Amino acid sequence: MATPVEFLPPALAEDTLRAFAASQHLPNPIAIQALTVTAEYHSIYVLSFSPDDGKAISPSLAITPDGSVDLILRVSGQHIPRIKTENEVAVMTWVRENTTIPIPAVIRYDATPNNLLGHEFSLLGRAPGKALHQIYDDLSQGQLEQIVDQIIDILVQLHKQSWHSISGLAFSPSSHAVIPGRVVEETFWQAPEVARHFPSSESVDTLNLQGPYESYTAYIAGSIRTYQHIIRLHPSLEPFRDLLPRLDAWVDALGQHPELNNTRYVLAHKDLHMANIMYDESTGRITAILDWEFSGVVPSQRWDPSRAFLWNGQRSASAAEEQKRLRKMFEERCEARGVGELLDEAEHTSALQETMQEGISYLRAIVEVCPRGQKQDKVGGWRAMVEACLEAFDV
Description:
Helix content is 37%, strand content 14%. By secondary structure, it is α+β, with helices and mostly antiparallel strands.
């Protein structure tokens, strides 16, 4: 399986970046630096400005210890055209307008390649402090407890707002107001792999979910229809085509179980681990939550779909145990603070609802790995899990 990093844009010359700043009606940067560590979906550059120029850009921008004002330029690859960038900026806009959750200021963005860079981009204010995964080993138990409490505060704000559909967020073409948009998920088939594994008639649009979806069951039905299309299309999935009639019947059966929609829809970051949290050691405060690109409105049971919550961002033998320890701390603090609903709402409301989610997750896994020729020793067991789900729905 290719990784998103393989499809990042080529390095941009300093002259190009200065011309870009001018094209965005920004002052000439006093320094430009390419970050050697890149995010999976972006090449990242730091554009530094004098304090006076920084204040002119936005009075709220922080001044760095060396006296400059830094902006973070994130240049996107063509992994998921348009909707990923728009989703992230729309979510950040909603969060800034409706909560006190700390996030970077959005200075400029373009969800198209129709700009001097030739790529989608977002230009953000630089948050003070360091990413928690960089300093995790130096944090005391007391600091960790304070950080967990601040994360609870963030989740309480996100979960306070109930939504009416499963979706990403987007901007209204007429008013630029934030509105429900297409679902955006990290498990999407992305453009480079669409070109590698599928006919030229297929695209990111045809191989992935749409939305918004009015209910949990509508989302599951949309997922089934998407995966059926891929099963019909790709020769590696021919052994699963005998399931197609039963999958049709599953879609029909979902409508007979309105109790499956017993959930709340909440805005979720979906990747809230320590590498995405900025922290100021001098104040003991979280200064920003980063990387909202795959966030969206989900059933409350799915606010942590990748199980990345509270991972310390380190690839070590002890990381999994440390995550379990922090999750237990999180649960204890939720109960102690009287916000146990954060825990309760993460639980499925019936055995059938849980089976429905497990079934679609295993079906997605099959459709994800077979075209890539991966995990052929696993797909037989995953098929059995899908069939067990179908049997639970009497189809």
